[in-house]
Amino acid sequence: MPDSRLIPTLPPLFLSRLSLTQFKNYGQRQYAFHRKITGITGPNGAGKTNLLDAIYYLSFTKSYFSGNDTQNIKYQTDGFRIQGVFSRQETSEEVSCVLKGGKKTVALNEAPYTRFSEHVGSFPAVMIAPDDAVIIQGGSEERRRFLDSLLCQLHPDYLRHLIDYNKILQQRNSLLRACAEKQTAPGLLLDTLDEQLAAEGQPVFHFRASFLRDFSDQVQSCYDYLSGSGETVSIGYESDLSQAGFPDLLRSNRQRDQLLLRTSAGIHRDDLRFRLNGHALKSSASQGQRKSFLFALKLAQYAALRIHKQLPPLLLLDDLFEKLDEQRMQRLISMVTGPEFGQVFITDTHAGRLEEAFKDHKDLFQQIDVAAEKQAG
Ligand SMILES: Nc1ncnc2c1ncn2[C@@H]1O[C@H](COP(=O)(O)OP(=O)(O)OP(=O)(O)O)[C@@H](O)[C@H]1O
Questions:
Q1: Which residues cross the membrane (predicted)?
Q2: Whole-prediction pTM value?
Q3: Cβ contact 284:293 at 8 Å
């Protein structure tokens, strides 16, 4: 992925220790990482993906896979703790994420955050997992989730606006329902909520629109590198707010919203339009083209974070070797071992396949077997 903007300016972020307590299938486990690339191996169901998810938690304060934090507590226990030590240049910082009594606490060097949005983006990471296919196949919420996971790392304000927007949206929808039930007019309260919704939603729209202007080109260059096919790919942004300002939109849709009992226009309906050679990707692309596109999308996400943060994020690769053909696998290896990439975690059921893949980079590679009871020190 040759791009001069990707030349390192800051030393990479490095997760050197990870400690898990009652997180998913883990009881107590400690790991020490000391190489750029960590292969995580073990049989199916051993906890490889769970380990990646624990690292993701430290970065995003939530799971990549499940929306509900309690699902990540080890069965028959009452809470979990994830602790990680990150080093950057000479300094090291400890991040902890604890769920106990239904309350989640995230702390940096033992100081808890009041808003998790202050943490997200400080330890940037990108996950690439088999389930990512839903970004193409699933509903618009999957594509918004992808975009949000990127933009909230780039701009702390983005996440703050988004969280507040979603709260106000719920209040507005509840008001519409309550008024219909009681057969009363929503009155001034709806005006106030509309003002607040517009104030939070408009900046989210601007962040998305301005980011997506360049992102399509970045995805194209990653796609070219991976597939070498000369095909064109593009990403379009579809938003109700492209047509009108948010206050006008809310006003003109008010009657409809009162009938539907929900807010029918806004950034919560935004979508991304993926195209391959000018046609809708979802319906026209082959499986291989979709895989390449998804991979390009994630690598472009990595590149965007890297350029913005001036340091390479952590890269979490789940089960990737199962999915890639030989040529793409070789390109992946030469990419992640190069200077543009920082610390990489990669899972595989076949320890031998990983060793073979990185045999020319032994000095960069360490392997851990999550099925082994031994705790790394
Ligand atoms: N809350 C939980 N408590 C205990 N175990 C859990 C919990 N959630 C998931 N598991 C267990 O974690 C295991 C799955 O772990 P994971 O997905 O990390 O496996 P994996 O090594 O990545 O497997 P594969 O190679 O099949 O992808 C399953 O055995 C599942 O039962």
A1: none
A2: 0.91
A3: no
| Strand pairing category for 271-276 and 233-238 | antiparallel
Chain centroid to Cα 77, Å, comes to 28
Contacts of 69 (CB under 8 A, 6+ apart): 62, 63, 99, 104
**CB-based contact 124:309 (threshold 8 Å):** yes
201 in a labelled binding site? no
The CB of 319 under 6 Å from ligand 1? The reply is yes
Name the pLDDT band for 2 (thresholds 50, 70, 90): very low
Q: State pLDDT tens for residues 129-153.
A: 988 999 999 999 999 999 999 999 9
Tell whether ligand 1 has an atom less than 6 A from the beta carbon of residue 349: yes
Q: Which residues of 89-150 form beta strands (DSSP E)?
A: 91-100, 103-108, 111-112, 125-128
| Site of tokens 């979709």 | 290
Instruction: Kindly give the distance from the C-alpha atom of residue 80 to the centroid of ligand 1, in angstroms, as a whole number.
Output: 15
Is 47 annotated as a binding-site member?
yes
pLDDT digits (tens, 9 = 90+) for 245-266: 999 999 999 999 999 999 999 9
pLDDT band at 156 (very low <50, low <70, confident <90, very high): confident
Residue 110: other Cβ atoms inside 10 A: 7
Whole-number Å distance, alpha carbon 202 to ligand 1 midpoint, is 40
Q: Is 42 annotated as a binding residue?
A: yes
